[in-house]
Write a structure and sequence with these properties.
Strand content: 15-25%
Structural class: alpha/beta
Number of helices: 8
Number of strands: 11
Order of helices and strands: EHEHHEEEEEEHEHEHHEH
Radius of gyration: 21 Å
């Protein structure tokens, strides 16, 4: 089902039960790894309280997710030294296909895709850092210095590398995730955004295996699939109820992916990994 775009939605309060910046950073790193392992295309971070201003947490989560998604060779140009990134060094490497391990020109293949950042402009075109020993030349000029873009190598000869810009959606392999900071609470977001299939995870729900066949029929036809997760202290039922809505009204399916759990709670990052693994096994994400 490669045609499907997979979205996940996680709440701002996912880090509310984690007091220290180091542990907050580590938790978001686990979420990023799970998303990349199971080829999530977009991560939506949504506010889950109508009573609190969660903008600070929304921005922090998005910043850490964007940092870990960015190839290492681009980070120094795209991120400033700041307190939010104090513990970025503990983040696990993403090792997705757009995070190449070689920085040598000789290992660069024509046709290969890379992420790059535009360093400056010359008479020939734009000079782009794509993470190898020499910079690359992009003869197109419709981009700005400092802009990140996805490119394809079209020439690698005598340390002269030329590239062309491409749409990341056209890359044939998984190319990481994008982060969306949502300004609407969960239920209202679902009322205004069009998803072909919305699956909410909750403890009070249908056992996943009992409805997996029904989900599979919808999944096979869907182009935009959203899998949503609740907060550490409140599940999606409670989050949506605060908005004056019901979870049944905004979801196509509500599923329990951890039946007969042996702990009082399942943390969001744990539910995320368990659920995506289950969906992958059943639906071949």
């Amino acid at each position: 089902m490669d045609k499907s775009k997979l979205f996940i939605a996680i709440p701002a309060s996912i880090i509310s039960d984690t007091p220290h910046l180091r542990e907050k950073t580590s938790k978001i790193g686990l979420i990023a790894r799970a998303a990349a392992i199971f080829r999530v295309n977009k991560i939506i971070v949504y506010p889950d309280s109508t009573r609190e201003n969660q903008l600070r947490d929304l921005k922090f989560i998005a910043k850490i997710l964007n940092y870990i998604e960015t190839p290492q060779y681009l980070r120094k140009n795209l991120f400033k030294i700041e307190s939010d990134l104090q513990y970025a060094g503990i983040l696990p490497p993403l090792r997705a296909p757009h995070h190449p391990t070689s920085g040598k020109n000789r290992d660069l293949k024509v046709g290969e895709y890379r992420e790059g950042i535009i360093l400056n402009q010359t008479k020939e075109g734009l000079i782009v850092d794509i993470g190898v020993q020499s910079t690359a030349l992009l003869r197109e000029r419709q981009f700005s210095v400092g802009e990140r873009l996805t490119v394809q190598v079209i020439k690698n000869d005598n340390n002269r590398v030329e590239i062309q810009a491409v749409n990341r959606d056209d890359v044939s392999t998984y190319w990481g995730f994008q982060v969306i900071v949502e300004d609407q609470t969960f239920g209202h977001m679902l009322q205004t955004q069009l998803f072909d299939l919305v699956i909410s995870t909750a403890r009070i729900a249908d056992n996943f295996v009992d409805v997996s066949d029904k989900i599979a029929k919808r999944w096979s036809k869907a182009e935009k699939v959203l899998i949503a997760f609740g907060a550490p202290s409140r599940g999606l039922h409670e989050i949506v109820k605060e908005e004056g809505l019901s979870l049944e009204a905004v979801s196509d399916f509500i599923v329990n992916t951890v039946p007969k759990q042996g702990t009082a709670t399942v943390r969001t990052e744990e539910a995320l990994l368990i659920s995506l693994a289950l969906f992958n096994a059943y639906f071949n994400l």
